[in-house]
Amino acid sequence: MTTTETTELPAPAPDRATRGPGRAGPGLPASVPGIASGLVWGAGQLINRQAGKAAFFFAFFAALIGWEIATGNYYAGMQFTPRLNGGFFVRGLWGLSTLGTQPREMTLTGLTEGDNSIVLMANGLISLLTLALLAVVWIWSIRDAARYRADLNTGRRPETSRGYFSRLWEGAFAYIVLSPGLILIVFMSVLPVLFGILVAFTDYNRDNLPPKNLVHWVGFENFATIFAVPSWTATFTGILGWTLVWAVLATVTTYAAGLLLAVVLASRRVRFPRVWRSVFLLPWAVPAIVSALVFRSMFNGQFGPVSQWLVDMGITDERVYWFTDPSHPSLARAVALLVNLWLGFPFFMALVGGVLANIPDSYYEAARIDGAGPLQQFRHITVPIVQRTVAPLIVLSFVSNFNNFGVIYFLTEGGPDNVEYRFAGSTDLLVTWLFKLTLDNRLYNIGAVMSLVIFVIVGAISVVNLNRTKAIREL
């Protein structure tokens, strides 16, 4: 029996390339490059010996600091104050938090410049959103430096900056292409929304206009005014109730009329269906504002032909003042619904017509074989298929009618007057009331509160109804 003895040889020293470039001593914690990049963007990448990535992240840091210094007054040799010495970011954040400290005043030399609270608020939002976008790059720099060092500590092969950016371009190409659009959305959509939200928490109104006066933060005082002061509460609840009724009836009537006409035009008994479709699409082709103004002239109580025709036919003893009779506000509301029906049914007619063209004839043939009549076919085949397809658009139509500014404002201007309402008439919707509060009466803070209320109501209704539709759940 022969016994073979084996001697363990020492493991070979790891190759210098496998240890990764730039390892400052064995076992350097991954947090060290991360902290370095947190203090100076790109410093962690420089510790990791990735000069290309370090230059990339440091460029953003240098642009941030350079922009602040270039727009500030840091070399004035006086005591530093954010108002006088701060750059774009420092003065912007100061203005957003304080809304200014010095109003315009009359002195012996004329009016002082003072602070414009609204301009300070807008500049502060721009600086805040810009910092938020730059914070994404800052966090990216920190995580990249720490993660790369952790990979080196586990013995993984190092990656060059060029290889990293090549891999990033291939793997995140879609996000890189979408990023300019995202930046535009932030400054063109998110910024105005945030500005409107902030105005709701200030005393910005006709009695306190900058730059003569400073605007102040007042918290939830404006919300308390709407929901606690009886006159404002009565106006809000009354207009909200009519807005909901209007949105429901305007949507239901246009959808029902469009569905009915689409079904009739799809019948083989109708000759020249294309001609009929073209005729019924004309109300949709004419701008809604033009149609509203035409109907407004037709239903004019003093000079309109409709009132004159009713008198001539003996239907009424005197002219009917459709839009100005405060004792009969239902007349103006009925006319508004009628005009909206005229403007809205072509859309659903064209939409439903396209859906009907894609329903297989075999469905109806099978129903006829089973003895189903036209009404049963309409109820059990046409309606379910159409509703399944157009349900999301019905919800969007409801939202559009909820904020249907054009028909109400250009047709009735919110009239007739209602003595129980504040700055509103009997046909005003929330959106037209908001318009009157802001542009006509310059109650910007109350208008901002109303815009928030409209957003919450419309958003909640839209989310609930869209989530209940099968077309959305199957996406």
UniProtKB/TrEMBL annotation:
Transmembrane segment boundaries: 54-76, 118-140, 172-201, 239-266, 278-299, 334-359, 389-411, 443-466
Keywords: Cell membrane, Membrane, Sugar transport, Transmembrane, Transmembrane helix, Transport
Membrane topology of this protein: Multi-pass membrane protein
Region called Disordered, residue ranges: 1-27
GO-annotated cellular components: maltose transport complex
Domain of life: Bacteria
The UniProt record lists the keyword Ribonucleoprotein: no
Keyword Transport: yes
Biological processes, Gene Ontology terms: maltodextrin transmembrane transport
Record function comment: Part of the ABC transporter complex MalEFGK involved in maltose/maltodextrin import. Probably responsible for the translocation of the substrate across the membrane.
Family the UniProt entry places it in: Belongs to the binding-protein-dependent transport system permease family. MalFG subfamily.
Name of protein: Maltose/maltodextrin transport system permease protein
Record organism: Glycomyces harbinensis
